[in-house]
UniProtKB/TrEMBL annotation:
An annotated Gene Ontology molecular function: GTP cyclohydrolase II activity
Organism field: Aequitasia blattaphilus
Domain of life: Bacteria
Positions with a binding annotation for GTP: R244, I245, H246, S247, E248, Q265, E287, G288, R289, T309, T344, K349
Family: In the N-terminal section; belongs to the DHBP synthase family.
Cofactor(s) listed in the protein's UniProt record: Zn(2+)
UniProt-annotated binding residues for Zn(2+): C249, C260, C262
Protein name (record): GTP cyclohydrolase-2
HAMAP family: RibA (MF_00179)
Originating gene: ribA
CDD domains according to UniProt: GTP_cyclohydro2 (cd00641)
Entry's EC annotation: 3.5.4.25
Taxonomic lineage of the native organism: Bacteria, Bacillati, Bacillota, Clostridia, Lachnospirales
Top-level EC class as recorded in UniProt: hydrolase
Details of cofactor binding: Binds 1 zinc ion per subunit.
Length: 391
């Protein structure tokens, strides 16, 4: 059984699990449980062994139902932790005993509880999760609510950071030891992201002009639909996978525009991958280097007046390249692909992927013979974007 499935089962039995976030983020571990099953014992365990702050992550809709808004409008916390005003359920006494805190938390996961049943301020700190979950924000708040959504119908959880006995933060190595000692499942936000991506992916067969492929759709937190066009058993390739990461270019990809080399690069990639028998093209919906079709056409108008593709973006108020490759790295990692041979001339793609944990063992140039209409465009890419081209 998958790590996440095991963790979900443990949560559904009322147990606590440990969730570690990214080592380049907070790099901390939290004890996490489902609000529905909070007991004086689990709360006491959190206070004795977790020693952090006990909080209750809830979904946006639950926050709305209980009239819980963010504690402060201008959140200046670097991680923008979405604390609401603190609460106690009206049936509690001082609100702080393990029993009282368990009661307040459990009432968050009760369809009969109403907004007036919570006194404010109190001793439980609700946190509002982003609607896109860990795909939108890689925090414990989102991880806890995503897990609650996968485990029960309440969208409410409770969490507590894990401190070492000396009061300092427990990092991953220490968390692994504690998980063993306490016999609790340990998962990372990265495991959960991969699980959700895979769980929601839609896969179909796609016979094409260039051979038979599989097409898989992945939706990002902003509901943009990115595609993986793959061939062969990509999770079990003999050597680092041959990959093309291609950003949408409607004019080039569909109309075979000669203003750029996108259409030809896409076709060549499909041919190369078909010939190799295994490989993948990630087709990212970041049209116009991330500024969208309308703005790209405005940039084209500026280029018709003599500006180059780099300066045209700046003139429109954008960075020369607004693209982001983190989601493509997430997709690859969710498939267990950590080493690739990348078809590109663009050094920025290589470094961005490596920063996101996908190693580019080889950069394979993808040069298309320049045409008179795009030679200047390609020269700008070479000079200002450092593309590896021989022109
Ligand atoms: N803003 C802007 N975008 C453009 C222009 N011409 C092409 N594009 C976009 O540039 C992107 C090209 O993407 P890719 O071919 O994946 O990337 P690349 O930077 O060319 O690097 P390679 O991997 O070597 O192809 C697409 O999103 C196009 O829509 C332009 O003049 N202005
Ligand atoms: Mg945290
Ligand atoms: Mg290109
Ligand atoms: Zn293009």
């Amino acid at each position: 059984m998958n790590k996440i499935d095991k963790a979900i089962k443990h949560l559904q039995q009322g147990g606590l699990i440990i969730v570690a976030d990214d080592e380049d983020r907070e790099s901390e571990g939290d004890l996490v449980g489902l609000a529905e099953y909070a007991t004086p014992e689990t709360i006491n365990f959190m206070t004795k062994f977790g020693r952090g702050l006990i909080c209750a992550p809830i979904s946006k809709s639950l926050a709305t139902r209980f009239h819980l808004t963010e504690m402060i409008e201008n959140n200046t916390d670097p991680y923008r932790t979405a604390f609401t005003i603190s609460i106690d359920h009206k049936n509690t006494s001082t609100g702080i005993s393990a029993g009282d805190r368990a009661e307040t938390i459990r009432q968050l996961a009760n369809f009969n509880t109403s907004c007036d049943d919570f006194l404010r301020p109190g001793h439980i700190f609700p946190l509002i999760a982003k609607e896109g979950g860990v795909l939108e924000r890689r925090g414990h708040t989102e991880a806890a609510v995503d897990l609650a959504k996968l485990s029960d119908g309440y969208e409410a959880a409770y969490i507590c950071e894990i401190l070492k006995e000396d009061g300092t933060m427990a990092r991953l190595d220490e968390l692994k030891k504690l998980a063993k000692k306490w016999e609790l499942p340990l998962i990372t936000v990265e495991d959960l992201t991969a699980y959700l991506l895979k769980d929601e992916a839609i896969k179909v067969q796609l016979p094409t002009e260039f051979g038979d492929f599989n097409l898989t759709l992945f939706e990002d937190a902003a509901k943009k639909e990115h595609l993986l066009l793959s061939k062969g058993n990509i999770q079990d390739a003999q050597q680092p996978l041959l990959v093309r990461i291609h950003s949408e270019c409607l004019t080039g990809d569909i109309f075979q525009s000669h203003r750029c080399d996108c259409g030809a690069q896409l076709q060549r990639s499909m041919e190369l991958i078909h010939a190799e028998g295994v490989g993948a093209i990630l087709y990212l919906r970041q049209e116009g280097r991330g500024i969208g079709l309308k703005n790209k056409l405005l940039a084209y108008q500026l280029q018709e007046k003599g500006m180059d593709t780099y300066d045209a973006n700046i003139a429109l108020g954008f960075a020369p390249d607004e693209r982001d490759y983190t989601f493509s790295a997430e997709i690859l990692k969710s498939l267990g692909i950590y080493n690739i041979r990348l078809l590109t001339n663009n050094p920025e793609k290589v470094s961005s992927l490596e920063k996101s944990g996908v190693k580019v063992v080889e950069q394979i140039p993808l040069q298309i013979s320049p045409l008179k209409e795009n030679i200047n465009y390609l020269k700008t890419k070479q000079e200002k974007f450092n593309h590896r081209l021989s022109l």
